[in-house]
Amino acid sequence: RDRARPRTIWDRCRWADIDPKLFEAWHDRGIALGRLGRWDRAVEALSHALNLQPASQRTAVALADALTHAGRAADAAEMLGRRLAASGDSNNNGGDEDYDLHLLYIQALRDAGKGQRALDEVEHMLSRDSHQARTFNALGLVYYKLDKPALAESALRRAAELDPKSAEEIGRASCRERV
User: Fold this and answer.
1) CB 87 within 8 A of CB 106
2) Mapped to the 3 state alphabet, what secondary structure does the chain carry?
3) Among 70, 114, 125, 176, which has the minimal tally of Cβ within 10 Å of its Cβ?
């Protein structure tokens, strides 16, 4: 067993002080700070990690989450929008990573109070592929944000029809949005 190898996320976090160019250490530091609820510091660490390794999808997702928790959903939406635009087609349902990133973008827009823009994005996704339960779930949550409960319920019912296994999860999400 290699004693120099870090054993926990906390050990790896300290490595960022030893070698400021160590991507994993900065990424892990951001995750650890987020777990502690220190969102502004998590944003700093994850931003540094993303500067070291701009292609890291998991760091971009973690940074968007940290920005949102830090009350900066508009910054999260802007960062995700730039990232999607750089990937070629900001409205692409293509690869799983881009699809997931696009759903996160819609959530960030919604959380930033840009409901109409979020609605435009999710409707464009649906125009390209109307068989994704998670896209209809996103549509329902955007409708709730826009205070259109009947349309929200309709979209969430469609999501449950497309993926009955996720119906309970979708129901919990809609309840959280209404609260």
Assistant:
1) no
2) CCCCCCCCHHHHHHHHHHCCCCHHHHHHHHHHHHHCCCHHHHHHHHHHHHHHCCCCHHHHHHHHHHHHHCCCHHHHHHHHHHHHHHCCCCCCCCCHHHHHHHHHHHHHHHHCCCHHHHHHHHHHHHHHCCCCHHHHHHHHHHHHHCCCHHHHHHHHHHHHHHCHHHHHHHHHHHHHHHC
3) 176
| Whether the Cβ atoms of residue 106 and residue 142 lie closer than 8 Å to each other | yes
C-alpha 155/C-alpha 130 separation (Å) is: 11
Looking at the whole model, is its pTM more than 0.70? yes
pLDDT of 87: 81
Give the list of residues 6+ apart from residue 21 with CB closer than 8 angstroms, or none: 52
Residue whose structure tokens are 């296994």: 165
Q: How far apart are CA 58 and CA 48, in angstroms?
A: 14
State the Cα–Cα distance between residues 179 and 175, nearest whole angstrom.
Answer: 6
- Report the pLDDT averaged over residues 96-109: 89
> Across residues 67-76, what is the average pLDDT?
97
* Spatial contact of 131 and 139, defined as CB atoms under 8 Å apart: no
